């Protein structure tokens, strides 16, 4: 690779929605993008914006060995960006082996561990007086029985991290339990999915009460970018991922995000999700995501704010882009397939009219998967989803189908 070119970005975990979005955003700035992915069949691996895609296990030391082998092929020192929690953990854990050959824009290992482990994070938040829902940690049936007596229902039950044994059993981030009598049986049925489960009082309110702040902090923990948005819909309902979001102004969300991350000496990409409780009106922290782009972080670029390019420029020592301040233009972000599913779900339950659906899609948008210049990932995702629908319906797909 020629040394006259700009430093490359190595995306670890292209086979995620956020990996695909990051590749497109960075390539648009003329940055060479090399990606590493675990799943060659993933729709994101059909993209045409990467110079190369290398396949390796991104959740293990194997990806570190790949990076070590590839290091000599780059002229300028590349920037490594992990794209999911598991990749963040691996890159952080082995950063000493990479630091000589790569830029690794992550905070200290103990900060990563604090933020990735929800037990550690919620414990810290309780001690720091940060606004979180009432939370109990379940390590035994006795803990579950005690929580059933003391928590107000409904509740959400989730793992410390969406990785390992949990993702082997489900794609759900959390489960909603409506009655105290459900908790102990649920715990007994799912206790082997994680060493500890988190029971948290449900924050009542519609999807539109969920706010997020995407940020980038420099090495002095100064926020160079903050961008606030809220969900409009999500899929699956109640405990799924955002399918439609819109930028908005909420100074309290930005304030809590900056207080949280600056307070722990943070450096790198960060994301905080909060929800307004419709009963108390209080904004409560749902979860942080750290060290990586998130599914909806590309709404910043849709709103004209260069979140990822700011990280790149700050990391390699280039002048920062001027468009780092949110202007509140009402930009939207949409996952076309998932939002169609979500809207149909609400429409069938008479919670959404066709006019409201149409109006929700109006305005300037950034897309999660769709791209006119890079359409193959979208159609690959659509084909896979249709195939799953046929599988669930019990109909045979044919001997040659994949």
Task: Write up this protein.
By secondary structure, the protein is α/β, with parallel strands linked by helices. It has 15 helices and 15 strands. The strands form three sheets. The protein has a seven-stranded mixed β-sheet. α1 links the parallel β1 and β2 (33-37). The protein starts with 8 loop residues before the first strand and ends in a 9-residue tail after the last helix.
Helix and strand layout, with pairings?
Elements: E1 9-12, H1 17-28, E2 33-37, E3 52-55, H2 62-70, E4 79-82, H3 85-93, H4 95-98, H5 109-116, H6 118-128, E5 135-138, H7 141-150, E6 155-158, H8 165-169, E7 175-177, H9 183-190, E8 197-201, E9 210-217, E10 223-235, E11 241-247, H10 251-263, E12 268-276, E13 283-290, H11 299-302, H12 307-316, E14 332-334, H13 336-348, H14 354-360, E15 365-367, H15 376-393
Parallel strand pairs: 1-2, 1-4, 2-3, 14-15
Antiparallel strand pairs: 5-8, 6-7, 6-8, 9-10, 9-12, 10-11, 11-14, 12-13
| Shape, per Cα inertia axes | globular
Which stretches are poorly predicted, pLDDT < 50 over at least 5 residues? 396-402
Q: Please identify, by name, the CATH architecture of the largest domain.
A: 2-Layer Sandwich
**Number of structurally distinct domains:** 3
Question: What fraction of the residues are assigned to beta strands by DSSP?
Answer: 15-25%
What's this model, at a glance?
The protein has 402 residues and is α/β, with parallel strands linked by helices.
């Amino acid at each position: 690779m020629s040394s006259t070119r700009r430093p490359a970005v190595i995306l670890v975990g292209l086979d995620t929605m956020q990996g695909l979005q990051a590749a497109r955003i960075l390539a648009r700035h003329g940055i060479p993008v090399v990606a590493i992915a675990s799943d060659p069949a993933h729709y994101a691996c059909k993209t045409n914006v990467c110079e190369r895609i290398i396949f390796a296990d991104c959740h293990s030391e194997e990806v570190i060995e790949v990076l070590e082998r590839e290091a000599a092929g780059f002229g300028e020192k590349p920037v490594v960006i992990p794209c999911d929690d598991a990749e963040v953990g691996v890159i952080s854990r082995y950063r000493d082996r990479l630091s000589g050959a790569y830029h690794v824009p992550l905070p200290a290992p103990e900060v990563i561990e604090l933020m990735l482990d929800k037990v550690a994070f919620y414990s810290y938040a309780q001690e720091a007086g940060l606004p979180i829902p009432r939370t109990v940690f379940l390590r035994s049936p006795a803990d579950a029985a005690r929580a059933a007596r003391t928590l107000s229902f409904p509740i959400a039950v989730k793992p410390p991290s969406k990785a390992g044994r949990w993702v082997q059993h489900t794609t759900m981030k959390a489960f909603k339990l409506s009655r105290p009598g459900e908790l102990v049986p649920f715990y007994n049925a799912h206790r082997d999915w994680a060493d500890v489960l988190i029971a948290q009082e449900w924050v009542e309110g519609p999807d539109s009460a969920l706010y997020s702040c995407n940020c980038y902090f420099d090495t002095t923990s100064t926020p160079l970018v903050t961008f606030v948005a809220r969900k409009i819909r999500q899929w699956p309902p109640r405990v799924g991922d955002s399918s439609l979001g819109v930028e908005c102004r909420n100074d309290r969300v930005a304030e809590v995000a900056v207080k949280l991350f600056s307070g722990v000496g943070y450096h790198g990409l960060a994301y905080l999700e909060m929800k307004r409780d419709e009963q108390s009106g209080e904004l409560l922290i749902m979860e942080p995501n750290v060290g990586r782009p998130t599914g909806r972080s590309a709404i910043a670029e849709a709103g004209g704010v260069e979140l990822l390019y700011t990280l790149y420029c700050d990391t390699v020592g280039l002048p920062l882009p001027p468009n780092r301040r949110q202007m509140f233009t009402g930009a939207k972000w949409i996952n076309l397939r998932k939002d169609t599913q979500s809207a149909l779900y609400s429409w069938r339950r008479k919670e959404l009219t066709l006019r409201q659906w149409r109006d929700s899609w109006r305005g300037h948008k950034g897309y999660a998967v769709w791209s006119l210049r890079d359409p193959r990932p979208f159609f690959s995702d659509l084909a896979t989803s249709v195939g799953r629908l046929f599988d669930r319906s019990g109909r045979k797909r044919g001997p040659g189908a994949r």
